[in-house]
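agent> call fold_tool(seq_1)
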Amino acid sequence: MALGERGGWDKSESRYCGVETDFNDDMPHLLSFNLSSGGFDFVVASLMDPNYRPSLMEKDIGGGSHVLPFAGSDLVLSPSQWSSHVVGKISSWIDLDSEDEILRTDSETTLKQEISWASHLSLQACLLPSPKGASCANYARCVNQILQSLNNMQLWLRIPLVKNDDDTTDFIPSVSTVTYAQILSWRIFSIHVYSRVRGDSWELWNSFRLLCEHHSQLSVALDVLSSLPSANSLGRWLGEPVRAAIIHTDSFLTNARGYPCLSRRHQKLITGFLNHSIQVVISGKLNHGVPSVSLDSALDHTGTNVESSQRHSLRPYLDYIAYLYQRMDPLPEQERFELSYRDFLQSPLQGHNPLFHIISDEFCTIEFSNYYLSFQPLMDNLEAQTYETFEKDSVKYIQYQRAIGNALVDRVPDEEASSLTTVLMVVGAGRGPLVRASLQAAEETGRKLKIYAVEKNPNAVVTLHSLVRLEGWEKTVTIVSCDMRCWDAPEKADILVSELLGSFGDNELSPECLDGAQRFLKQDGISIPSSYTSFIQPVTASKLHNDVIPCLCAQVSPLEAISFSSKCALALQVKSHKDVVHFETAYVVKVHSVARLAPCEPVFTFTHPNFSTKKSNQRYKKLRFEIPSDTGSAMVHGFAGYFDAMLYKDVHLGIEPSTATPNMFSCCASSSVCFVESYFDTGLQIPAWFAIFFPLRTPVCIRPGSPLEVWYEWCVASPNPSPVHNSNGRSYWVGL
């Protein structure tokens, strides 16, 4: 029973809430009680009798065969019930790093037995107990061994969300009915968990996953306690592979009506988890005196009447989580359209890649279940569906129209508007959206225009001619079928307009193209855009980093791609070695499950026109990022890149988070990829850029207060040096 409906579009895993249970060898009853009576969607259930110890069994049996005390046979539930409604909980007593040799041996034996049984049951996940101390090397070694031969099951490592020693942020109840006894119980619960993990629990997780080589099937289940770290410290977990948030009933307050509730900081944390597809699990016993009138007959979060005899003791906590879920702001239509593209790596406009390339004009390359076309912005010609994707971006062209209108007004005084004609050149005209925007700007401002539409793609030129005839622009628009770098213009332009910007500003050769085209421009002419700056920031992005692996690709025709995509992955993704080429390629991605560790810093700025005789587009920049001290340690998996462009004067366009053009950063489609959906008329206005992701071959762990230094061709200089990535453009380049 899901937490609720949010318009029918939310299909994320966070809709489902689980409950942690004690050992029960009657699994059918356990499942029925918690799902049917409790309203939960799954149980986190112990698979083995907690009293079982291998060494004791051997002594009792005398070395003979014995039946392991699992919670029932695999036949007591159907395969779909085991798979969909049960998360296995590994025995909490195990301690593989204990100094007691018998306990250590028993722990390893039991862990392997329980994981083997869970795999036999086809469970989707197992919850591993939290390490008992700061040292977890043997525990991680054993888990890593298991991961090497594990099927598709996920292992969730339980980690308490505890505070740093120097973090003063504490839990302050904001409900007037809080009692001293409640505060004392919260403190005792926090101290009990905190005593096992001193300092920063992220350090414990990081040590464990490093020993397990960042394995993609190892994830985190966070124990959310009554005390929370600072916002910066919490934020870094959004870039980690967190699958579940376990909330103990001791962490809830009591509101004025006697029902459980959470503090505002806890509410914000839980809704953030829900927004990142992290499932909530309720743990513990009823600690709140829910009014008796509500126990006689009550409506649950789905509106169903539940009698007191059937009501689960933890139902009030589930109903509260459902309340938080249902009151979350609905995603805008554009965001819903993009849900399937969150954290999905896409290849940008780039040079030849031996594993991703076009084998003929009628073939494209498929990765996973979505497909994209690998092409060069200058060396290759775009296809019709790519142009269509770009042209759906109404926001971009509105900004261009504003900039052109302002430039026309500045260029031509009102008294000369009827007599003076402005020469405007659109270089890279495509199928004509900038031509249309220019003419609309001229009509709005009452200025006269003469337009040259320069386009090198002969196929797009056919469409341009058709558009000009259809709109009756023959006397105003001259179409030039030529590469802008080779054309000899018959006259100089007053205004030069282009849309050559990539996700990182200059990564689609805008500077090189415009430097070659500015010979068309008068000395006092205007270039739109007039300047643009690239930005980067360090990010924790565990999912993106794990996805940077070679994939088995299949070549199919574009028309076949639609049906091909709908048939799912067809085993396209394969587990392969992480090679240098893929870690030296920049990827276009709708970043979502990432932790932004420091504010963006500007990298390169290009200004047009640039009539300097010593101009050069070679750039070098060394950046220093300061990670806030209350963040704690964090892992840098790479850098997120953005751009901000000044089209003309105060009219700007960009995706840098702090200054992003409305409707361009939070809802956008990549300018560097062609989507399957572009075949259809979705009715959506799709802006043009995602961020760009520069991965690091080896993630770098940074400590509180330590600076991070980087330059592009990217590498890390401090605190731990890494190799220079993409040296001399050996993996990722754009051809002129």
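agent> call fold_tool(seq_2)
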Amino acid sequence: MSAQGDCEFLVKRARELVPQDPYAAKAWLITARTLYPTDFNIQYEMYSIERNAERTASAGRLLYDIFVNFPEQPVVWREIAVITAALRNDSQDKHAQFLKGVFETLPGPVQCKMLLKATEQCFNTLEKAEMLLLLLKRFPESVVQHGVSLGESLLEAETVEDLDTPVNCFRKLFVCDVLPLILNNPEMCLPVSLLYKYMHKAAEFYICYVTKEPSADGQIQGSQEVGGLKSPGRGRSQRVVIGGLSEKSSVVTEPWERMLEMVCVVGSLCDWQGEKGSRSYSELLQRVTELCRYMSAADSEGFSRCCGQIVTCCSLVLFHCAFHYVSAVQPSLFQGHSSLSSSPWVLLEDLSSVYTDVEVERKHAHKKRKLADGREKTMSSDDEDVLAKGRGRHIVVNNTEMSSWAETLEHFRTARESWDLLHSHQSLETEFAKICSAWKTEMWLWFRIFLTDMLIYQGQYRKSLSSLALMSSLQNQQNQNQNSLSTSSNLETHRAIIQQASCHYALGEYRMACEKLLEVVAGLTPQNQDAVKSIEEQRKPRSKTRKGNDLRLVPCTSKSILPFCLQLMLACFKGENLFLKAVDKICQQGSFQYENFFNYVTNIDMLEEFAYLRTTEGGRVQLELLPNQGMLIKHHTVTRGITKGVKEDFRLAMERQVSRCGENLFTVLHRFCINEKIILIQSLP
């Protein structure tokens, strides 16, 4: 029998003995190995028996032997692939734990060599990166040699794959796993330009991750940390499944906090001015604001370094605070919010000071009325220096409706300050524009919402309208991509249209404002509330008059929006002053015909006014207010408290109408706006 035949016989005999007498089988193989020390099949069979019996120490020793003695055998690499796969995933399966134990028994240099060899066997970019990442985590000294090349290969793979979002498997591995190892390795010495490149890649990922559009909601638990820089891994966060990764591997916890920590680490590596490790984004902004004051005095190199520091820090503070502001005013945009049905909030002009209440004396002395003088106080132009920067403007919020109002307004203020700082110098503005272009921020709906509100705050209404048009386009695109629920979509559409109306009004474009308002009103449902009280509460004077500079942040619901729409429409028509002018004109022409009068007019002052017009003192005006009345009603008179001699049908109609004075005014006005839409629009210039 040949040597090969002998080896095959011994291996076969050992296999047969394993179920009955494993010790005998082991003795046969020890003998065989002594006789044929270079035969692979004998040694692999010895390893297989120990592996199947899950004897960790002996299996590890035998794996070491076959790896050192037979490195080119395909079976060996298949076995190593199974072991490294167990190392890469977090399975608590008993066999997986055994395989990890086998690997741990190997000497360090052998582990390192095995992982490097295993990496060379991988042809899939993602799998190869995960394998090399195992090496870097286990052997930090290898980061110097392989860290940057691994990072670049991941970024290159992202480019080659032409992925449409930075939230992808390659960028996630780079940002959350590779970059922390690079930044925390004291032996690494990277050029400043590369540090900035990596920092911006990471920041883009974090921001796009946390602002990702909604999908199935859910929460995942866990934690992961790498060195001194925490690596966002598993933790309480919104559910995002990244293509190529498992759901568990896709989770990033506390992205904003991790981004802040990364910026501080990079800042220290780049020798940033005054960088001592910021504990918050507001502190980061404060530091670069102080730096801005001294920037002009620096030399060209110092100016360049300061410019990069200021733009990076300000940009991240801007996006951080803008996100938190928008997540409060339109929460359905983002992942992780418990209720996608949460109503958005809308920033509008505060109409409480559009009118100033004064006592108006009518020429007839039978009564006094408190009517509006109709003086308009619109904040109209983009040329207004005071409003161009939004100085002194106050945002009114009902703190019972928004519990986090103070924090929300603070984020809005800080984001505006960051924006102003980024546009305070041409060099800063240019560098910021490069970041926005690279990140395609023009496609970020949530950021467009912030920019629009900022422009409205600044009183730049013409620019606000352009921004609202872009916002509507992005909103429509998002709704198409998501097949968005109609309720949420309608609320967000109303939000944009109401702001358009508010801007048109501020610019004196009343017809456009009215068209937008009527479009919104048609989609609203009147609520059971006191309309007069609701509107009058908005008109109450405050102890500190701000002369029309205030804004109001209100929930985008029928209850809150309908009063605003009606009041703004009233302002477009110059309010009660218009009614007084109409009465004067009726008196001049001596007659008035409006067959829908009793459908809509329920205000007691107006009813008394028309009753007065029929009296001798009021001018005996001929009124045709009943349907199909024609010329049946002659010059009868009605005065307060006197009904004798009055035509019966008119008297009864008036009495019925007075009984309707307690009717919900919102319901009446809502019906009027819908039914008389065309006439209303035609009435405006």
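agent> summarizing second result for user.
The mean pLDDT is 80. The first strand starts at residue 345 and ends at 349.
agent> awaiting next instruction.
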